């Protein structure tokens, strides 16, 4: 399995498919399982690249944990894999990393951001802490998925719990990632001129919709779309969201 290195941290990543590269940047605490639905929709006509944030999955739990470091980690991964151009898909903390990366580095071509605020001020720190697996498997899913989804997709929720035990960041690693998210100070957003789609959960307790809508307004080429659900609304409604993602990628694949 390939691994890049930045600042003494080994960073695990995996790729599937051929074509323009689509990079998935994870949210605070969550492992690569988060992108299983998106990965299946994208891999084939595109190359899907999924990497573990430091402290998550098979990447080393080595500090510092901040958005600038995560963006530098992403650059190390893309350089290691020889990627010249990439479409970035980020959720929560990963969306902030994608924004910072697009401002600081030259490989990004589009941004798709899920449940991401314009700054750490848009994040409810208490709600974010309750998403940690440390809060308990069932309790930690209450802010992630709607009650109807947890009831009607009980088998899938059980699978998610198993995947989380294998891959999620916990303890100090989760705390460091959460602090990176709540402490995020964005670059000048008017300078991030890439085509950007922002999706937000209507009932997201971590990043309320007005924070995501504010982000879309501040980006020169940003649009905002509401999705029913909570912080992982893009997983709960993966089919519709990934259809939109693939259409967006197709529109800009030749850029």
Notes on the structure:
The chain has 255 residues and is α/β, with parallel strands linked by helices. The protein has a single domain (3-252), classed as Alpha/Beta hydrolase fold, catalytic domain (Rossmann fold, 3-Layer(aba) Sandwich). It has ten helices and eight strands. The protein has helices spanning 36-42, 67-81, 93-104, 125-129, 147-152, 154-167, 171-182, 209-218, 233-236, 238-252, and strands spanning 3-6, 9-16, 21-25, 47-51, 86-91, 108-114, 196-201, 222-227. It has an eight-stranded mixed beta sheet with strand order 1-2-4-3-5-6-7-8, with helices on both faces. Helix 1 packs across helix 10 (238-252) and helix 2 (67-81) packs across helix 3.
Task: Sum up the structure in keywords.
single chain; alpha/beta; 8 strands; 39% helix; globular
How do you describe this structure in short?
This protein has helices at 36-42, 67-81, 93-104, 125-129, 147-152, 154-167, 171-182, 209-218, 233-236, 238-252; strands at 3-6, 9-16, 21-25, 47-51, 86-91, 108-114, 196-201, 222-227.
Strand order of the largest sheet: 1-2-4-3-5-6-7-8
Helix percentage range: 25-40%
Shape: globular
The CATH class label is: Alpha Beta
Which homologous superfamily in CATH is the superfamily? Alpha/Beta hydrolase fold, catalytic domain
Please name the CATH topology.
Rossmann fold
Low-confidence stretches: none
Tally the helices: what do you get?
10
The averaged pLDDT comes out at: 95
Largest sheet: 8 strands, mixed
The total strand number stands at 8
Task: Please tell me the total number of domains.
Answer: 1
Query: What sequence of helices (H) and strands (E) makes up the elements?
Result: EEEHEHEHEHHHHEHEHH
Q: Oligomeric state of the chains?
A: single chain
Task: Determine the strand fraction and express it as a percent band.
Answer: 15-25%
Q: What CATH architecture would you give? A: 3-Layer(aba) Sandwich
First CA to last CA: what distance?
30 Å
